[in-house]
UniProtKB/TrEMBL annotation:
The keyword Cell cycle does not apply. One of its GO terms (molecular function) is UDP-glucosyltransferase activity. Gene3D superfamilies: Glycogen Phosphorylase B (3.40.50.2000). InterPro entries: Glyco_transf_N (IPR058980), UDP_glucos_trans (IPR002213), UDP_glycos_trans_CS (IPR035595). It comes from Iris pallida (Sweet iris). This is Glycosyltransferase.
Length: 442
């Protein structure tokens, strides 16, 4: 990989500090470096600590990646110290200050770009980092925008926005047909953008910043979304590089196990448990990094898993495992399901699990990385979207690609204040059972 003048290109990657955005960009950094490019990966101390095994591995392998740590001005922006990623923020009230803290990285980034050698040939910056557009223009550096979600979502959101199709609806739960798609897809304003509309000003700035970008890098692939990629190129009149699934950069178990954060379970432990199960029998239940499930809903999921009779790996976050849930689990549930259950509290090595042949189904919140990680090894999904791009991703999985069944949720839930059941155990169990009838992994 050489520039016209024979020098190696230098990519400067600026990911959004959120697991679902950071993880694919770490994969991208390693991919670029393994092809001979020099890479500078902008991060912060807490995020760097989370991916320390990856940093150490890259250095051992001699990959030309520099992990450039900027201090995130949390205090100045009113964000609790140490909360350097969206999933670490104690509540959604800190989202806006967090965006403000990120914007304050403009000057340090500019200084870095002015001083770094070799000079940056290209910046790849997350869609949400609208402020990098100005930096790139001031320093005359080519900038590509990284879109983390599916092209289907990006295209749908763009078409919905430009057509103003929501302006004709009386309430946010009324369905509209998404304009300009090859398929007839219905969506409500509550589902997309839904709750995210409170950051409409940031979205406006991000869309404005897209205009100055040379093109887009997407974590998708032609065979999956060719029609949507073609329509997006037609609409934006810009270059689109579908370079996914980026997760496939990780070939060996160690590399798959160290993505995003330190796993709460040893690789050999999860592998020997999965090895002991029948092929395609196990269901993985995991809702990504941002969703928080309240006790009553967690217990409902547990009851459905028990009733389904299927072996399962269930990922419960530490913040979710309160005394009430612990008590319920220890008063019979764990005992009754012991022979076929593995409960992981904390961070799971998701890619290790999904790529094991014993796994035949995935109850997912429809985060795009999770979907790609299931599609790659051919694991069908039970879709349970919560917010953001997830409802449109569900439409892609269930209605367009037909590789999943919906659990039936219609109204977004993000971090619910109220402890209540959104999806009843019967509905969860039916989705699990119907997935089994579809024959598990294709
Ligand atoms: N992930 C993981 N272990 C966990 C939870 C999440 O490895 O316990 C990874 C998952 O494999 C994926 C990413 O975190 O790569 C989550 O991204 P996604 O887009 O699916 O959802 P988000 O967290 O952004 O809602």
């Amino acid at each position: 990989m050489d520039n016209v003048n024979g020098a190696k290109p230098h990519f400067v990657l600026v990911p959004l500090m959120a697991q679902g955005h950071m993880i694919p960009m770490v994969d991208m950094a390693r991919l670029l470096a393994s092809r001979g490019a020099t890479v500078s990966f902008v991060t912060t101390p807490v995020n760097a600590a989370r991916i320390k095994p990856v940093i150490d591995d890259a250095s051992r392998a001699g990959l030309p990646i520099r992990f450039v740590e900027f201090k995130l001005p949390c205090k100045e922006a009113g964000v609790p110290e140490g909360c350097e990623s969206f999933d670490l923020l104690p509540s959604v009230d800190f989202y806006r200050p967090f965006f403000e803290a990120i914007c304050m990285l403009r000057e340090p980034l500019k200084l870095f770009l002015q001083e770094t050698t070799p000079r940056a040939s290209c910046m790849i910056t997350d869609y949400c980092h609208w402020w990098t557009s100005e930096v790139a223009q001031e320093l005359n550096i080519v900038r590509l925008v990284f879109h983390g979600p599916s092209c289907f979502f990006i295209l749908s959101s763009r078409n919905i926005h430009h057509s103003k199709v929501y302006e004709s609806v009386a309430d946010e739960h009324e369905s509209v047909v998404v304009p300009g798609l090859p398929q007839r897809i219905e969506i409500t304003r509550a589902q997309a953008p839904g709750w995210f509309s409170r950051w409409e000003d940031i979205r406006q700035k991000a869309m404005e910043a897209e205009r100055t970008a040379t093109g887009f890098v997407m974590n998708t692939f032609q065979e999956l979304e060719s029609e949507h990629v073609a329509l997006y190129i037609e609409s934006t009149k810009k270059m689109v590089l579908p370079i996914g699934p980026l997760s496939l950069y990780n070939k060996d178990t160690k590399s798959k196990a160290t993505r995003g954060n330190k796993s709460s379970i040893e690789e050999h432990q999860i592998l020997s448990w999965l090895d002991s199960m029948e092929p395609r029998s196990v269901l993985l239940v995991s809702f990504g990094s941002m969703v928080r499930t309240r006790p009553l809903q967690l217990i409902e999921v547990g009851c459905a898993l028990e009733a389904s009779g299927r072996p399962f790996v269930w990922v419960v976050k530490e913040v979710e495992k309160c005394a009430e849930v612990e008590k319920w689990m220890s008063e019979g549930f764990e005992e009754r399901t012991r022979a076929r259950s593995l409960i992981i509290t904390g961070w799971a090595p998701q890619m290790v699990i999904l790529s094991h042949g014993a796994v035949g189904g995935f109850v997912t919140h429809c985060g795009w990385n999770s979907i790609l990680e299931a599609i790659s090894p051919g694991v069908p999904m039970i879709t349970w979207p919560h917010f953001a791009d997830q409802f449109l991703n569900e439409k892609l999985v269930v209605e367009v690609l037909r590789i999943g069944v919906a659990v039936g949720i219609k109204v977004p839930v993000f971090r619910p204040e109220e402890d209540k059941v959104e999806v009843e155990r019967g509905a969860i169990e039916s989705a699990i059972v119907s997935d089994g009838r579809r024959g598990g992994r294709r």
